[in-house]
Amino acid sequence: MKKIFIFLPTLFIGLHLLAQTTKPVSGLPPALSAIKEADLKKDIFELAGDAFRGRRAGTLDEMRAAVWVAQKAQEAGLKPAGEDGTYFQFYNIHRTRISNRGTFLLNNQPLVLFKQVWPTQPLESHLNGQVVWLNSMADTTTDLKGKIVAIKIVAPNPLPAKGMSLWGYRYTASAVRQQSAVLRRKGVTSVIFVADEVTEGSLAFIGFNYESGTYQIDGAITNAAANRTQGIPVILVRQSFAAALQANPIVKADFLVDRFDYPSVNVVAKATGTDPKLRDEYVLFSGHHDHDGVGNPVNQDSIWNGADDNASVTVGMLAIGRAWVAKPGKRSALFVWHGAEERGLLGSKWYVAHPTVDKQAIVAVLNGDMIGRNSVDSAALLGTLSHKNSTTLVDMAMKANTDLTHFTVDFSWDDAKHPEGWYFRSDHAPYAAAGIPAIFFTSLLHPDYHTPKDEPAGINIPKLTKMTKWMYATGWLVSQAGDRVGLDKK
User: Fold this and answer.
1) What does pTM read for this prediction?
2) What angle do CA 266, 271, 275 make, to 5 degrees?
3) For residues 422-437, b (16+ Cβ closer than 10 Å) or e, as one string?
4) Residue 41: CB atoms within 10 Å
5) How far apart (Å, rounded) are the C-alpha atoms in residues 328 and 25?
6) Dist CA 316 CA 321 (whole Å)
7) DSSP state letter for 138
8) Which of 34, 372, 377, 416 is the most buried (most CB within 10 A)?
9) Is 222 exposed, middle or buried (0-12, 13-18, 19+ CB in 10 A)?
10) pLDDT truncated to tens, each residue of the chain (490 aa)?
11) How far apart are CA 247 and CA 433, in angstroms?
């Protein structure tokens, strides 16, 4: 009997300790240890390295990157959830661009297309005539009907907000749009804009954008795209040609348009849930695997790697996939790596229109875009203020942050008055527009955004790891909840 009394207290203590170790702590997910800095670092240096050449949508580089993502998803234990039993969902991009066979002669001297001269929209046009130089927009009081006019870009009014991303491009685009509209109403046949100092300093991105043309998918033709294929020729030249244009030269230009289709691809994988009643519902983790590709060199670097934008989330989703396979949630997890996000959210628009699972079974979308830079203690969450469609989902994300990551969360970028309009620039937006609860995780902009400097060496791996764990922990709460995440009533 003595031995039994000695044993019982030991047994009670052991059971108490066991209860403490198995009891969930504040809803934290069980496989956090599967998200490892070493894995994230290895993956991002592969995907965002020069070998994938920036993963531009519609190129073989994007296809190679998509195959790499699918292979990594398979290695993680995720099952294919694309079309025809594969990890892939292909769709066509319709591209319209100025052909590189175009010519532009200034007093019979040729300018190099996309190096010295850029048509600003894919519009077939043929010019042959004398240029009328305008010293300022005040010269528009003269009769300009039927004229080819040239003018130095005038600063737009209003200016883009101070500190806004891609400021030089926004400055130029606003100026070109405002001033060409005035001149078009005056009846001019074409406008030649001479770059000012701001535009000249941003020509790497501006020229790359104009050279690329426009991209669309079936069912998503926008008014903006339609407008870019109408109107009068609007042409940008380097500021070094100002003097020649002021001398009222003869200009002869022939710009032809190429129209063609080529494929892009979403990569789709899943981890099946454990609850017989809930496993047919999905927590969707969203990101994009494409970036800008090979473009105009900056400091002799022509590969726009897109390490933060958005290889960071691509590899973060792979890490979440490994965790989910190790310890599945009650609901299934669906992973969609969208293609062609940089060309206008084309992959997510396509998936929302052609989902590979029942759209009604998607409980919530947790999207990430750029999660690997800036302070390790700060982050932003969008879909929380002006654009919030699910208070429950936001509360879950904030609970995960309180319990695990402890970020100082910036909500200001979700304000409808924020000049960046950041909420509408990533892949959650088409899902939210379709009435699916959605939030957007990001660590916000930095000076290397959309430049060749966005390389793996600039990624803050501890920050990337912490953001990945925040997305995972939020998705875990969504997965385990008895009731579905609900939409707010309007």
Assistant:
1) 0.91
2) 140
3) bbebbbbbbbbeeebb
4) 16
5) 17
6) 9
7) G
8) 372
9) exposed
10) 333 333 334 333 333 433 333 333 347 999 999 999 999 999 999 999 999 999 999 999 999 999 999 999 999 999 999 999 999 999 999 999 999 999 999 999 999 999 999 999 999 999 999 999 999 999 988 899 999 999 999 999 999 999 999 999 999 999 999 999 999 999 999 999 999 999 999 999 999 999 999 999 997 654 444 444 468 999 999 999 999 999 999 999 999 999 999 999 999 999 999 999 999 999 999 999 999 999 989 999 999 999 999 999 999 999 999 999 999 999 999 999 999 999 999 999 999 999 999 999 999 999 999 999 999 999 999 999 999 999 999 999 999 999 999 999 999 999 999 999 999 999 999 999 999 999 999 999 999 999 999 999 999 999 999 999 999 999 999 999 999 999 999 7
11) 52
Q: Encoding tokens for residue 193?
A: 């804009």
200 and 177 Cβ atoms separated by less than 8 Å: no
Q: Which of 349, 353, 330 is nearest to 340 (CA)?
A: 349
Helix runs in 23-154, H state only: 37-47, 60-76
**Cα separation, 270 vs 291, whole angstroms:** 24
Burial class (CB in 10 A: 0-12, 13-18, 19+), 81: buried
Quote the tokens at residue 374: 């800036």
How buried is residue 79: exposed, middle or buried, by Cβ count under 10 Å (0-12/13-18/19+)? middle
Q: What is the spatial distance between Cα 223 and Cα 215, in angstroms, rounded to a whole number? A: 13
DSSP 29: -
The closest alpha carbon to 380, from 422, 443, 313, belongs to 443
Q: How far apart (Å, rounded) are the C-alpha atoms in residues 214 and 224?
A: 10
Which tokens is 365 given?
Answer: 């979308």
Output the six-digit token pair for 173.
């685009």
Q: Chain-centre distance of CA 325, in angstroms? A: 27
Asked if residues 380 and 415 have their Cβ atoms less than 8 Å apart, the reply is no
b/e sequence 196-220, b meaning 16+ C-beta within 10 Å: bebbbebbbbbbbbbbbbbbbbeeb
Helix (H, G, I), strand (E, B) or coil at 414: helix
Query: C-alpha angle with apex 348: 343 to 354, nearest 5 degrees?
Result: 125
Q: Which two tokens stand for residue 205?
A: 């991105």
The tokens for 224 are 């903006």
The secondary structure of residue 407, as a DSSP letter, is -
Alpha helices by DSSP H, 92-219: 167-185, 197-201, 203-212
